[in-house]
Amino acid sequence: MPKDGSLNRERILDAAEKLVIENGYAATSLDHVLRAAGTSKGAFFHHFGSKLDLARALTDRYVTADITNLDAALDATADVADPAARVVAFVRHFEDRADEIMSGQSSCLYVAVLTERQLADAGTADLINTAITAWRKGIADLLTEAATAGGLELEDVDALADHVFVTFEGAFLLCRSTGSPAHMRAQLGVLRRLLAAALGVAAA
Q: Distances in Å between the alpha carbon of 90 and those of 38, 41, 57, 121?
């Protein structure tokens, strides 16, 4: 283990993320986190000043990973020459990885955090807005380029970009409520076909 204890910190965050997603922040006690992480209170307070501090760090890490996933999808589709086809390929990038996404987690941390008034008031909502803004800009830029290249008029690009983000969140809820991870792939497939139709490009 590194001398700075970074592996121990990540183990605590990993345990807390799973517990908060599964049970909610209020129902996840510090003792629950310590048991799941296999660590002590001393180790916990070496890295976090409080349970609320842990929640902020957890959200910050999740947001960073979320934006990294966005950037990875943009990079992976950067060589698609047709802007409209790139929009479709962008969604397909996640659709093809839907099973992997759902095997890693059963729901989204954003939902668990935003339903807790204490966390929202403590600034975690601002962290989440950072991710939402990044997704909106990234997707809106793709849509604008596609509309310009195709001579199309999209009524509200920002709202359409938000719809892409909302589809992910809604799919998480649908998977969680039904107990079936298959809904993530299905919903992304529907989104891909709708965007393809709007942009006048093949959905495949």
A: 39, 43, 29, 34
Residues 38 and 87 in one domain: no
pLDDT tens digits, one per residue of 6-40? 889 999 999 999 999 888 898 999 999 999 999 99
Q: What 3-state class would DSSP assign to 25? A: coil
Contact (Cβ atoms closer than 8 angstroms) between residue 143 and residue 154: yes
For residue 24, is it within any domain?
yes
28 in the same domain as 58: no
User: What confidence score (pLDDT) does residue 113 get?
Assistant: 85
CA distance linking residue 21 with residue 173, whole number of Å: 11
Higher-confidence position of 103 and 11: 11
Is it the case that residue 183 has pLDDT exceeding 80? yes
Shared-domain flag, residues 84 and 45? no
Domain that holds residue 35: 1-49
Burial class (CB in 10 A: 0-12, 13-18, 19+), 199: buried
CATH number at residue 2: 1.10.10.60
pTM higher than 0.90: no
Count how many domains the chain has. 2
